[in-house]
Amino acid sequence: AASPRLEIAGGAASDFGEGRLPARDLPAESWNTQEWLEFLRVLARPLETGKLEELDKAWNLTGIGNYEILDEWLLMAIESGYQPAFPRLERFLIEVGRTKLLKPLYTALMKTESGKTLARDIYARARGGYHTITRTALEKILFL
Length: 144
Known about the structure:
Distance between the termini: 43 Å
């Protein structure tokens, strides 16, 4: 059965996405990782950048320390073209070595020409810090 807390987060995503609930009024003060992930995954993509900006101002998602939530936020930023998150995306791709977190971001970047250039540039700088298995997985995505 679905969790009532996840249903609340999903409902909040629908309400926010459709303009019925401002970001600052989200019931997110006590949300755990799973609730944030549910919220972010329910939101339509691409999401207009004004909505991403509103969320970021209210909840500082670009600056969040939880890497699972940050990973999903950065994926949404790539898919929606939310440029203010891109410097953090670059640092994240260089700092983090977990294949599970990196693959979706590099995959999303590879969907546009500018993204391909950025992905390959960041990968060239980050490659030395990645485990061999991670490098192999990412090079398939990057066609290297």
